[in-house]
Structure to design on (237 residues):
């Protein structure tokens, strides 16, 4: 243990409850892709996994220094007042409940947060926005478990622009997208087809979400560095 470890911000990462297999076992598990853990660690944070559970969100948020809303399954369309499209995945009410509770609590505390893919869509829904349930041209998700590389244009003068510059090459995997923006949110990056690629809540310490998967790109740690930097208590609180 380094004597500096206690100064590394605690960064919560929301995670799955799903069927998983390891060794001779196949059973329900709480898990998250290792890429998220590695991205937080490389950026100078201490990752803490936050699987769906019935309570304790407030206590966790009081201890955590930052929050990552990880990618995952489709948000239940009932959360934004829509009927389910046939191509929308089955609902995951426990995860939706848990993450919406964490997200709203983080916003109440102005806790730094980074949303990834589903996490961006959840931020939009939490603030009253809606989603496009299926992108017809499939340009953002072509083959199962295969990321699509493309360029996004980033708004000048935004937090995303401060971190990434005017454009970035990113890795996407999603079939849904932001439609009507939630209250107070600003869309600060777009792909060439007009899809919203980043949302942020101005006036916050750090409230940024992206439609792509920055955790899969170890050569570009800038978003996770920005989150961890904003999460240092001695400089931000």
């Amino acid at each position: 243990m380094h004597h500096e470890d206690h100064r590394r911000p605690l960064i919560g990462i929301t995670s799955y409850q799903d069927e998983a297999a390891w060794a001779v076992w196949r059973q329900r598990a709480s898990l998250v892709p290792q890429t998220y853990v590695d991205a937080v660690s490389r950026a100078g944070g201490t990752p803490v996994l936050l699987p769906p559970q019935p309570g304790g969100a407030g206590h966790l948020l009081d201890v955590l220094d930052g929050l990552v809303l990880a990618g995952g399954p489709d948000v239940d369309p009932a959360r934004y007042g829509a009927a389910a499209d046939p191509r929308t995945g089955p609902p995951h009410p426990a995860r939706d409940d848990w993450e919406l509770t964490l997200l709203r609590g983080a916003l109440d505390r102005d806790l730094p947060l980074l949303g990834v893919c589903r996490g961006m869509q959840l931020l939009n829904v939490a603030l009253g926005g809606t989603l496009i349930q299926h992108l017809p041209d499939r340009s953002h998700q072509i083959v199962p478990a295969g990321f699509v590389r493309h360029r996004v244009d980033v708004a000048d003068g935004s937090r995303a622009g401060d971190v990434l510059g005017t454009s970035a090459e990113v890795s996407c995997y999603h079939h849904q997208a932001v439609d009507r923006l939630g209250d107070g949110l600003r869309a600060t990056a777009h792909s060439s087809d007009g899809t919203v690629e980043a949302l942020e809540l101005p006036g916050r310490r750090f409230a940024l979400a992206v439609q792509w998967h920055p955790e899969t790109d170890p050569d570009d740690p800038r978003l996770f560095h920005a989150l961890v930097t904003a999460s240092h208590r001695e400089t931000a609180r």
Q: What stands out?
A: The chain has a mean pLDDT of 91. The domain at 5-236 is CATH 3.40.50.880 (Rossmann fold). The chain is about 25% helix and 25% strand.
